[in-house]
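Researcher: Checking consistency across runs. Here is Adenosine 5'-phosphosulfate reductase again:
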Amino acid sequence: MTAVREERTTDELRALAERAGRDLEDASALEILRWAVETFGERFCVTSSMEDAVVAHLASRARPGVDVVFLDTGYHFEETIGTRDAVQAVMDVDVITLTPRQTVAEQDAEYGPRLHDRDPDLCCALRKVRPLEEGLRGYTAWATGLRRDESPTRANTPVVGWDEKRRKVKVSPIARWTQDDVDAYVAEHGVLTNPLLTDGYASVGCAPCTRRVLEGEDARAGRWAGRGKTECGLHG
Ligand code: SF4
């Protein structure tokens, strides 16, 4: 990514995001991403957990070679890393892998093993929240694959909003989509998906904190199951 200086103030960006959220509520995912690309250029990126490459695929249609940021926590399933490698190999995107400051072994040495079982909030802060904050510094706007139908905590996700924590514009182009919409887009465009999605997982995160979902559970029920935690802090 070539650094381009952001000329707008934080107040201007916040107002821009809030206005776009209203104006683009009924726009298609591709129109929302085209707006983001036209508005922010190289200071716009997509983040992907490599559960599927739907938003990365949409964004590459809006801007071939778009930056796709992937957070490698050191705890991913092999299938997730394989999906990341396949996305880089076959799609017109630039995958940028972020890593935490410490390896899992270094974290174990400082905090003790299996921090994810004892203090998942701290583990997520060290391995997800901080690296993403550092990795997004060069961008003004970032896109996510959040959907309103995934869980009650995501039901009010705007298609464009203001991320107060990072002071950036946050774009969620498929916020209004359902799982059926995602499945239809994947089928129509032959988009890469994580093989775990056909093995009982509805949402794919770090291996120690992800289980298969049961009949009738919402898509994110398999994340941090039994630990009273629903989000990693990236979207709070
Ligand atoms: Fe740690 Fe689990 Fe969070 Fe991954 S999802 S960073 S293993 S607590």
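Researcher: Does this match what you'd expect to see?
Model: One thing to look at in this run: The helical segments are 10-23, 29-40, 54-62, 78-90, 104-111, 115-118, 120-135, 179-189.
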